[in-house]
Amino acid sequence: MAAFFCALSLTGINSGSNGESYLKSDEARWAKQLGVKQSYVREIVKTAGFSEDDQVRIDDLDLRHLSVRKHILLVTAAGEGHCLTLSVVARKSGSIQKVWELTEFPEGGGLCHDGARTGNFEVRATRSGVIIIDVPKDENGNYVLDGIKHLVYKWNGEAYVLNEQQRRRLSQ
């Protein structure tokens, strides 16, 4: 099955050329791109459980697609395997709280590429409020998760959950 275990080899990813952490520089870049204050992006990142010393990059920060629930999707990447962490935080009563996180599949493999043999997992949220993980293909053009092209996570009132049919296929 998905034998993509994240070996977080983080050497060389921790800082930019001027010694500033990549995370801090990513926060500034995303704040500018989204038209929000850097302190707001920092609060989202911190609520998701990351500090400025963490050796991660911001792969995506989606403030609008999950906004019907006041949710924000943060996707971070770490290591040479471009291992993803999906975090959803919610704005509640003037504060932000983490409501969901995904770092690995139900059977245990991480959301990482397998060297040059596969592409990266890609994540997006949709207007309908679901989170979709696009599954990469291997060197033979096959999807790395036994023919699964997309993983779809829907909000059930408490968490984002993988649809039952996909969950069964992954656990076989």
Short description:
The chain has 172 residues and is an alpha+beta fold.
Order of adjacent strands in the largest pleated sheet: 1-2-3-4
**CA gyration radius, whole angstroms:** 16 Å
Helix run count: 3
What number of structural domains do the residues give? 1
Counting helices, strands and paired strands, the structural category is alpha+beta
Strand content: 25-35%
Spatial separation of the terminal alpha carbons = 8 Å
Percent range of helical residues: 10-25%
Shape: globular
Helix-strand pattern? HHEEEEEEEEH
How many distinct beta strands?
8
The largest sheet is:
4 strands, antiparallel
Arithmetic mean pLDDT: 83
Low-confidence stretches: 1-17
Protein architecture, described:
By secondary structure, the protein is of the alpha+beta class. It starts with about 20 loop residues before the first helix and ends with a helix. Helices cover about 20% and strands about 30% of the residues. It has helices at about 20-35, 40-45, 165-170; strands at about 55-60, 70-80, 85-90, 95-100, 120-125, 130-135, 150-155, 160. It has a four-stranded antiparallel sheet with strand order 1-2-3-4. Strands 5-6-7-8 form a four-stranded antiparallel sheet.
Outline the fold blueprint:
Layout: H1 22-34, H2 38-47, E1 56-62, E2 71-78, E3 83-92, E4 95-102, E5 122-125, E6 131-134, E7 150-155, E8 160-162, H3 164-171
Antiparallel strand pairs: 1-2, 2-3, 3-4, 5-6, 6-7, 7-8
